[in-house]
Amino acid sequence: MTVPAEHGTPGGPISEGDPSGPVSEGKPAPEPATAAKSKAGRNLPAAIGVGVGLGVALILILVYVPLVWIGVVAVAMAVATWEVTKRLREAGISAPRIPLIAGGQAILWLGWPFGPVGVLSAFAGTVLVCMVWRLFDHGLKATPQNFLRDTAITVFVASWIPLLASFAVLMVLQDDGAGRVLCLMIGVVCSDVGGYAAGVLFGKHPMVPAISPKKSWEGFFGSLLFCVIGSLLTVTLILDENSMIGVLLGVVLVVTATLGDLIESQVKRELQIKDMGTLLPGHGGIMDRLDSLLPSAFVTWLVLTVLV
C-alpha cells in the first residue's frame, strides 16, 4: 500500500510511499508542508480514522454476512476503474470506461456461480468488447487513432483491477472463506504498518529511487517482520493451520504488496499525478488503497488453495 510522503532532508530518513506531487523528468515535485501532515506526508488523524472505520466494517461483514463481501469488492472495483480511466483520459489515453466497468462487474459476479471458469470467460469477453468498442468509438467512418496503445492499456486495466480482485471473491466462496480473506487483509495491513513505521523511523537506504524515492530497504524489512508475524498468527489462530504456511504467506505477501505498490507508483509517475482520486481523506482514492491488495489477493488465494 502506498503511503504518500514528503521529501526528507539530505541524509535524513526515507519514509515509505509515493512521490508527494506531480513528477517531471522522473523527479517528484515537492509539496508544501502543512501542520496537519506527519513526516510521511499524510493527514494521520484522517487516515487513521478512515482506516479503522473501514477495517471494522469489513471485519463485521466477513464475520456475519460474508457473501456481502462480493458486493463490497464489486463496488470498490467499479470506483477504482472509474478513477483510473478518468486519470488516463486526462493524460490523453482513451480507455473505454463503460465496457471496462460493466465487464469488471461480470468478472467479479460470475465467479460466484461459476468459479474460475466464470472469471476467465468474463475477462476474455471484456477484453473483446473493449477492443471492438475502441475500434468504433468515433464512428464507422473515422480512422482510429492510437488504437494499439489504448487497447493495450485497457487490457492492462482489466487485468490490474477486476481480474486480480476476482481472487478475493473466489477466496470468500471457499471453506473458511471469511477467515482466508481476513488472512489477506490482516497480512497486507501488517505489511503497510510495518513498512510505514520502519521507513519513517529508520529509512536511509532507497530501495528503488527511480520509481518510488521514499521507499527504503529499512521499510521493506519492517514490512517483512510485521507481515510474517501477522500472517503466522492469522493462519494458526483463524484457519487452525500449520504455522509454516503462515510464515510462507507472510513472506510472499510482502513481496507482492511491495511490487503492487511500485506498479501503481510507476503508473502515477507516468501520468504525473500524486493520487488516483480523493474519495478517502488521508489516503487518496480507492485505487490508492488497493495497489498492494490486488496482487496480494491472487497470491493469498493461490497459497491457501494449494496448501490448506
From TrEMBL:
- Known catalysed reaction(s)? a 1,2-diacyl-sn-glycero-3-phosphate + CTP + H(+) = a CDP-1,2-diacyl-sn-glycerol + diphosphate
Membrane topology listed for this record: Multi-pass membrane protein
Q: Which EC number(s) are documented for this chain?
A: 2.7.7.41
Molecular function terms, GO-annotated? phosphatidate cytidylyltransferase activity
One GO term of the cellular component aspect? plasma membrane
Q: Which Pfam families match?
A: CTP_transf_1
The record, for InterPro entries, names: PC_trans
Q: What class of enzyme is it?
A: transferase
User: Where is this gene product found?
Assistant: Cell membrane
Question: An example of a Gene Ontology BP annotation on this entry?
Answer: CDP-diacylglycerol biosynthetic process
Biochemical pathway: Lipid metabolism; Phospholipid metabolism; CDP-diacylglycerol biosynthesis; CDP-diacylglycerol from sn-glycerol 3-phosphate: step 3/3
Q: What keywords are assigned to this protein?
A: Cell membrane, Lipid biosynthesis, Lipid metabolism, Membrane, Nucleotidyltransferase, Phospholipid biosynthesis, Phospholipid metabolism, Transferase, Transmembrane, Transmembrane helix
* Keyword hit for Lipid biosynthesis: yes
State if Nucleotidyltransferase is listed as a keyword. Answer: yes
Record-annotated membrane-spanning stretches: none
Q: Which PANTHER family match?
A: PHOSPHATIDATE CYTIDYLYLTRANSFERASE
Please report which protein family the annotation says this sequence is part of.
Belongs to the CDS family.
UniProt name for this protein: Phosphatidate cytidylyltransferase
